[in-house]
TrEMBL record:
Phylogenetic classification of the source organism: Eukaryota, Metazoa, Ecdysozoa, Arthropoda, Hexapoda
Family annotation (SMART domains): ANK
Organism field: Cryptolaemus montrouzieri
Segments annotated as ANK repeats: 170-202
Protein name: Uncharacterized protein
Keyword tags: ANK repeat, Membrane, Repeat, Transmembrane, Transmembrane helix
Segments crossing the lipid bilayer: 28-50
Keyword set includes Signal: no
Stored SUPFAM superfamilies: Ankyrin repeat
Any single Pfam family the record assigns to this protein: Ank_2
Length: 233
């Protein structure tokens, strides 16, 4: 690559430069100053190399936190403007739980931001420190808003290729969440999309223990092969 060629040429010039300085009996401080300048050039070449390989610049924590704060405050337009200027920050984790801008957008169920980031190569396999996937976070958001009927965020993530069965570090899957909170429409949708009802602990048992008997019955009688509930007919 051109970066390696530049580095090779630089090292060759460096040999000539030091030979020249030694021949002229340069002082110790002149040699140190010369070496510092060369080191700075090398660092610039390395950064250029990383930019070409990863399509990104070194991360500025201040900018990353500004993007995350914008998402937290639901400032969608401001967030989009920031991401247009700094697209390389979409998959950068921050904080104790390692939320990326993409994960945080999923957590808030912000479909506009999620769709934009998916077009900008958001990482579907990224997780928080607790093992929560983008899909898991979007499901949690929908459950936290019992009066909401907007499931567009989880639909976007599902059709983008998210795994509906990916658990967190405790082994809890999205179906476990829906069963635990008795969210029948979400439970049915997850089953239709291939959620595994046979994981441990049983989502049906979880729903039953919490008193959501209709949800428990739905899960127990679900026919995975036909993706429908088994009836007595």
């Amino acid at each position: 690559m051109n970066v390696f060629l530049d580095m090779k040429n630089l090292l060759g010039d460096l040999d000539n430069l030091f030979a020249f300085l030694l021949e002229r009996k340069a002082t110790y401080f002149q040699l140190i100053w010369c070496f510092s300048c060369v080191l700075l050039v090398i660092l610039c070449l390395i950064e250029s190399f990383l930019n070409k390989i990863y399509g990104t610049k070194l991360i500025d924590e201040t900018i990353l936190l500004k993007i995350l704060l914008s998402i937290e405050t639901c400032s969608t337009i401001d967030t989009l403007q920031l991401l247009q200027e700094y697209p390389q920050y979409i998959n950068c984790p921050a904080g104790e739980f390692q939320y990326t801008p993409f994960l945080l957008s999923c957590y808030h169920g912000n479909t506009h931001l999620v769709k934009y980031m998916l077009r900008m190569n958001a990482d579907l396999k990224t997780k928080t420190r607790r093992g929560e996937t983008p899909f898991y976070l979007a499901v949690a958001n929908l459950i936290n808003k019992p009066l909401s009927v907007d499931a567009s965020c989880i639909r976007e993530l599902f059709y983008a290729g998210c795994d509906v069965n990916a658990p967190n570090v405790s082994g809890c899957t999205p179906l476990h969440l829906a069963a635990y909170f008795g969210h029948k429409p979400l439970t049915k949708w997850l089953l239709e999309k291939g959620a595994d009802k046979n994981v441990h602990p049983s989502p049906a048992v979880v729903a039953s223990i919490k008193g959501y008997l209709e949800v428990a019955h739905l899960i127990s009688n679900w026919d995975d092969r036909r993706r429908r509930m088994i009836t007595s007919e």
